[in-house]
Amino acid sequence: MKNIAIIGAGISGLYIANLLSQNSNYKITIYEKNSSVNLEKGYGIQLSVNSIKLLNQINFQKISVKDKFHPHKLDFYSLKNNKKICDLDISMFNSTDRKYTTLQRSTLINFLKDGLHENIIYYNKKVIKINEEAENKEVSFEDGLSVKCDYLIISDGTFSKTKSLIANKETKPKYFNSIALRATIDQDALKGINPDNISLFLGSNLHSVLYPVNSKGQFNFITIFRKKLSTKELSDYSLFENKDFAASIMSEISKQVPTETINNLKSIKCFPIFVSSDVNEPKNKDTFIIGDAFFALPPTFAQGASQSIEVAHELYKNLENEKTQFNSERIKRVRMINMKSKLNYFAFHLSNPLIIWIRNLIMQKLVKNEKFINSYLGKIYKD
After folding, report:
1. pLDDT digit string (tens) for 3-42?
2. Which of 170, 199, 200, 334 could pair with 210 in a Cys bridge, judged by C-beta atoms 3.0 to 4.6 Å apart?
3. Which positions are tagged coiled coil (predicted)?
4. Is 305 among the domain residues?
5. How many Å separate Cα 87 from the centre of its chain?
6. Is position 262 within any domain?
7. pLDDT (tens digit, 9 = 90+) per residue, 236-292?
8. What is the pTM of this model?
9. In angstroms, rounded to a whole number, what is the distance separating the alpha carbons of residues 17 and 31?
């Protein structure tokens, strides 16, 4: 029997644990640094069909229809005049059992957590040392616990400390010169949009996204805008919990986002966006990195959760086939999605009126071009 230690109980760690638990040849333990799994409600995520196919392998389709939503289109609007620019049919990639899905993050986490035995997850376990020299890797924790494992899977997020330990150097993500503000809003407070779709509002150096997270009229709201921060500001993460800082961010956003929307936002939080510069591959063949620790993408293709699931699934397949390395195609794929995410970010944040006018004309043509859609989206969604 192979002992597998998973560091981090996020989406990728919980998902691969569900897959591995189907095989009695594995003994799985998840070590989570926090005192519980993050089940904060209101935080929405999008799952494209490429990840729904993989989630269905652990019965994701059984989640109640009232706790998830299947948007039909992506509607693009101009924040300047609140007029619709065009729409993109994202349901064209759907099938009977695989549909583009939006839901609360807590719904997905609860589903993944409920699929595991209670004693699999150990909380308050902060990794301080990893010894990879012995035949069985040894992981030491701050509370004095030390465990040995055959395979070590690192899935402790964008700011992975465990990744730095195995690399023997600090592997920091890069600030994306952007801040995200997220909140919830009820459908009753929304005017002029189609509640069956995802609404994307393009502004100057800013864009906002609205989408339903269930069938109860609850929507996720997120605004991403360009903002440079000093090294001092970035090092003080408590800044983003500061009410005055949040108020200043709201003031900036309210210059473009309608007042009616701003006044109806609830559970508001803001945070800086960090991304990976490149893929870091472990030197030890039995150590693996997945999820945001593997690669943190810009959020402008809504592929963060889907790619966490994809990478975890690929590792599972490799372990089942007794392969111990990700293939080069996986790295190429992540780099391709990263490039498209950055292209979206550029297109969504234009400020020159003439260039915006040209962009809108191009978008109106491209969303109706089936060949382009199959190339730009299909290469991701159909994988």
Report:
1. 999 999 999 999 999 999 999 999 999 999 999 887 776 6
2. 199
3. 302-329
4. yes
5. 23
6. no
7. 878 888 888 888 999 999 999 999 999 999 999 999 999 999 888 888 889 999 999
8. 0.94
9. 11
Identify the CA nearest to 51 among candidates 27, 29, 26, 68.
68
Q: List, for residues 187-234, the tens digit of each pLDDT value.
A: 999 988 999 999 999 999 999 999 999 989 999 999 999 999 998 888
pLDDT of residue 45: 95
Looking up tokens 């035949």 gives: 135
What residue has token string 């609830």? 266
- Asked if residue 19 lies in contact with residue 65, where contact means CB atoms within 8 angstroms, the answer is no
Structure tokens at 124: 């308050």
The residue segments making up the domain with residue 299 are 2-173+276-381
| Rounded distance between C-alpha atoms, residue 209 and residue 200, angstroms | 5
Establish if 326 belongs to a structural domain: yes
Cα 128 from Cα 207, distance rounded (Å): 39
SS (H, E, C) the chain: CEEEEEECCCHHHHHHHHHHCCCCCEEEEEECCCCCCCCCCCCEEEECHHHHHHHHHHCHHHCCHHHCECCCEEEEEECCCCCEEEEEEHHHHCECCECCEEEEHHHHHHHHHHCCCHHHEECCCCEEEEECCCCCEEEEECCCCEEEECEEEECCCCCCHHHHHHHCCCCCCEEEEEEEEEEEEEHHHCCCCCCCCEEEEECCCEEEEEEECCCCCEEEEEEEEECCCCHHHHHCHHHHHCHHHHHHHHHHHCCCCCHHHHHCCEEEEEEEEEECCCCCCCCCCCEEECHHHHCCCCHHHCCHHHHHHHHHHHHHHHHHCCCCCCCHHHHHHHHHHHHHHHHHHHHHCCCCHHHHHHHHHHHHHHCCCHHHHHHHCHHHHCC
Domain count, the chain: 1
Which CATH number fits the domain that encloses residue 40? 3.50.50.60
